[in-house]
Write a structure and sequence with these properties.
Layout (H helix, E strand, L loop, with lengths): L1 E2 L20 E4 L4 E4 L5 E5 L20 E6 L5 E5 L6 E6 L3 E8 L21 E20 L8 E2 L2 E3 L2 E3 L5 E4 L4 E3 L2 E9 L3 E7 L8 H20 L8 H14 E2 L4 E2 L22 E2 L3 H11 L2 H15 L9 E2 L10 E3 L11 E3 L10 H15 L6 H17 L18 H18 L3 H17 L33 H15 E2 L2 E2 L14 E2 H13 L3 H12 L11 E2 L6 E2 L5 H20 L8 H12 L2 H11 L9 H12 L1
Antiparallel strand pairs: 1-10, 2-3, 3-4, 5-9, 6-7, 7-8, 8-9, 9-15, 9-16, 11-12, 12-13, 13-16, 14-15, 17-18, 19-20, 21-22, 23-24, 25-26, 26-27
């Protein structure tokens, strides 16, 4: 039987929305789950970041699926990630005892496999929760509702071997005594110190897990993350925050392709109660050169290379018509639709799946792709004749079309404009093409023409700062990136632009993106990555102490587990938008990297392009001693894999 909107009957039916920053992320580089500070799993997508979620209570508190575990009469809960891993440990203190929740998604290597024994990447597709009483006695209450089609349908749960399942949907395996009531299962049990139970959510009919098998999976997952984290070369004062940011980025990768999802969620609002609710479970090519710089600077050349292969695959599907975003499997079509049956986070509607921005024309992305290519080449990467021909075609397209208007970096949904940052990125496209492929006359001519026009029309005649668009007097936080792109703007113009942005868009330590009409109703919060860009701009212009202070204050505004959303409310400091946000965490990593470069080599080390800074950073940390130190930290060199076959085989070998 299928129900339309059932009335929940389980213990936490009155629970409403939790603050966005109160969530923790776990995942397996295929899918992901978000766990609230009270232990409730309110979002979970298995197999792919963009899959229909098996839990979606974040988007409808009364109707969406979830998994909760509570102690009757419980009090304080504390939580942390286990070391430098993505294993979440939560402690629930009750009146008579304490229970520990261990949440993870299995990922790891085949024990004993040779370096060249590759297993095809395939989603393990499990969310695992192990519950253990660690002190006294606890009375545990568990409730679960599995979502189908974003909670559009509510079929009855069907008992199965060791749990419950939805026909054609997800499965809950457990050794807890739960009873089904229509579309939900719940129950209460008492545990004494040392007793352990499990809950496993999957999308397939895998055999019922055992405690030995789950213990083995946990050990393999712990080993995977510990070894992967040990490769990080950053050892500066903000290592804890940088490590958590790069671990979050790794979780947002989609292992089969190397894509990095902008966020694991859809439609968490930029304006509570408003309509600025977008689906970010896709990959934006604008993050390409930033991701390459971040991963390369930290020592993760494999992730950087895999993302590069994904980027080229996307671009080469339609030469001359690069999209600004693609699906994590390199899909081109991301048709946007509203899910009217969901109330949205705190009443923020509509809830959207898909993103219509894939249809927008932006010249920015051509510059971003060619900037990535030049950075890749500067770090020793090579391109074949076909790839060079493709980059040449991109440059020719920009040389012919750079004078056309567009939607701009921020994907405005109003009329196209002559955005100054878009023109600068067209200049970047010409400059990087000349560096990569040689100074062809038409590219040099276009580069010089763009610079002349931006200098003449993109600068405010009254105040001498760069403005958002030729026909708009206001400025744009994206212009903080100019000194990081090698664009010959002139020191005075940069100083005036930084001052204008802070004066017009600033709200304490935070910045709005712009104040102009963008074709969407309502307002939004401050865009977090812009504050990290401001710290970089302060550093480049010689204000190092101010940059350090701002960076420290920004890091203090993260959630309790050092995770950031897309935006923040400048007054309340509540996080807004999809969570956690890859671009914000790229900002954390790169500002820490730039501060480290400044400390080592002074202000001159920050000059030039992303490629220049990447090369300086890698050269500073990649000598024989650094390589030997990384080898000693890991104890071995091998291929890390994430596959259902390998995980299950390993679990079987450990439990036998």
């Amino acid at each position: 039987m299928t129900h339309n909107r059932p009335v929940p009957q389980f213990p936490d039916s009155g629970r409403r929305y939790r603050p966005i920053e109160d969530y923790a992320l776990v995942g397996d580089c295929h899918g992901n789950a978000l766990v609230a500070r009270d232990g409730s799993v309110d979002w979970c997508a298995l197999g792919r970041h963009d899959a229909d979620p098996v839990f979606c209570r974040m988007l409808d508190a009364g109707n969406g699926g979830f998994l909760s575990s509570e102690i009757e009469g419980g009090g304080r809960m504390t939580r942390t990630y286990e070391g430098d891993t993505n294993i979440l440990i939560s402690s629930l203190e009750g009146p008579d005892g304490t229970a520990t929740l261990t949440d993870f998604m299995p990922v790891g290597r085949v024990p004993g496999a040779r370096v060249h024994d590759y297993v095809r990447l395939n989603a393990p597709g499990w969310f695992v929760r192990i519950v253990e009483c660690t002190r006294g006695r606890v009375r545990l209450r568990v409730a679960c509702r599995l979502s189908v089609e974003f909670a559009r349908r509510h079929p009855d749960l069907r008992p199965s071997d060791g749990g419950f399942e939805l026909p054609g949907g997800a499965r809950l395996s457990t050794d807890l005594p739960l009873a089904a009531d229509r579309d939900s299962a719940s129950g209460t049990t008492e545990l004494a110190a040392g007793e352990r139970r499990f809950l496993v959510v999957s999308r397939d009919a895998s055999p019922r897990p055992t405690h030995d098998a789950l213990a083995a999976l946990l050990a393999i997952t712990r080993a995977f993350w510990t070894e992967w984290s040990a490769y990080c070369r950053y050892a500066g004062p903000w290592r804890k925050q940088v490590m958590r940011s790069v671990l979050a980025l790794k979780l947002l990768t989609y292992a089969p392709t190397g894509a990095i999802a902008a966020a694991p969620t859809t439609s968490l609002p930029e304006d509570i109660g408003g309509e600025r609710n977008w689906d970010y479970r896709y990959c934006w090519l604008r993050d390409g050169s930033l991701s390459l710089l971040a991963f390369a600077a930290l020592g993760y050349s494999g992730e950087a290379a895999q993302f590069g292969r994904y980027l080229l695959k996307c671009c080469q599907q339609s030469p001359g018509e690069i999209q600004i975003l693609y699906g994590i499997g390199a899909e081109c079509s991301l048709e946007e639709k509203a899910l009217e049956h969901l109330e949205g986070y705190r009443g923020s509607r509509p809830v959207r799946v898909g993103n219509a921005a894939f249809r927008q024309r932006q010249l920015d992305v051509f510059g971003e792709v060619l900037d990535w290519a030049w950075t890749h080449a500067s770090l020793g990467g090579r391109f074949g004749p076909e790839q060079k021909k493709y980059f040449s075609q991109l440059a020719d397209f920009v040389a012919a079309h750079w004078q056309e208007p567009g939607q701009g970096l921020w994907e405005m949904r109003g009329e196209p404009r002559q955005h100054v940052f878009g023109k600068v990125m067209a200049w970047v496209a010409m400059d990087r093409a000349c560096r990569l492929l040689g100074e062809r006359p038409e590219w040099v001519t276009a580069r010089e023409a763009i610079l002349r026009e931006v200098s003449a029309r993109g600068v405010s005649p009254a105040d001498g700062h760069f403005r958002q668009a030729y026909d708009l007097p206001g400025t744009d936080a994206a212009l903080l990136l100019l000194p990081m792109l090698g664009f010959p703007a002139g020191e005075e113009a940069i100083l005036r632009t930084v001052a204008a942005i802070r004066g017009e868009l600033g709200a304490g330590d935070f910045l709005l993106r712009y104040r102009t009409d963008d074709g969407v109703r309502g307002g939004e919060g401050a865009f977090l990555v812009c504050s990290f860009w401001l710290a970089d701009a302060l550093l480049v212009t010689g204000r190092a102490e101010e940059a350090r202070g701002l960076f420290d204050r920004l890091l203090a505004r993260a959630g309790d587990l050092h995770l950031f959303a897309e935006e923040i409310d400048p007054k309340t400091h509540a996080h807004l938008g999809n969570f956690p946000q890859a671009l914000t965490h790229l900002g954390v990593i790169l500002t820490a990297f730039h501060l480290d470069l400044f400390e080592r080599h002074g202000q001159a080390a920050l000059a030039g392009t992303h490629a220049d800074r990447a090369r300086r950073g890698v050269e500073a940390t990649s000598g024989p001693r650094a390589i030997w130190a990384a080898f000693k930290r890991t104890g071995r060199v091998g291929r890390l894999v994430s596959s259902k076959a390998s995980v299950l085989a390993a679990a079987a070998s450990h439990s036998s």
